[in-house]
Amino acid sequence: MKFKDKVIWITGAASGIGEALAYQSLRYGARVILSDIDEARLDEVADRCRKMNGEVHPVPLDLSSRESLEKAVPLALSGFGRIDVLINNGGISQRSLSWETPIEVDYRIMHINFFGAVILTKAVLPSMMEQGGGSIAVTSSITGKFGFPLRSAYSASKHALQGFFETLGIELAGKNISVTIAMPGRVATNISLHALTRDGTPHGKMDPGQASGIPAEVCARKYLDAIHRRRREVLIGGRELTMVHVRRFLPRLFYRMAAKIRPA
Question: What's the pLDDT score for residue 264?
Answer without folding.
Answer: 53
